[in-house]
Amino acid sequence: MVKRPIILLILCTIIGLTLSVTSVEAQKFGYIDSEYILNKHPDYKLVQDELTSISNQWKKEAQDLEQGIKTMYANLKAEEVLLTEEMYQERLVTIKEKEKEAVAFNNRVFGINGQYYQKQAELLQPLQSKIYDAIDRVSKRNSLVILFDKAAGPLMIYTDPRHDYSEFVLEELGIENK
Predict the structure, then answer these.
(1) What proportions of the chain, in percent to the nearest 5, are helix, strand and coil?
(2) Is residue 113 part of a domain?
(3) Phi and psi torsions of 148, nearest 5°
């Protein structure tokens, strides 16, 4: 009599495992290429143009600082014979301070978490939100459990094009592939 509940328990376990394996096999997955989607989105070109403009302006400021330092060194070299040691050292200290200012400017603007990267994040955030919302809708509409990003890194060594949902995301965003 004790054998019967054990057999039922084993049968229920086997049936449960079979059902869970079957449901795992039925899950759908796909991938997108976020770089491809970004490059197709018309707003991305506007963001890139604005970033280029801002970057060029900051690069010009950095170049002006560097040119100013070079000019100061050239003037110091030209006047070196006319200056006392104390005057020479004072001017050298002034030049070194300008160099520190130039380095600080470059770090503040182009360094890690600098103004350029903050501006980039600020400008891209609305576009990324639109794309994420479109990805979410496409994933739900197609009952996808997992959606990979092909552009996110070398994680995927092979992709079957029939699982690429990038075009669906573009369609969801109202962008036609030309």
Answers:
(1) 80, 5, 15
(2) yes
(3) -90, 160
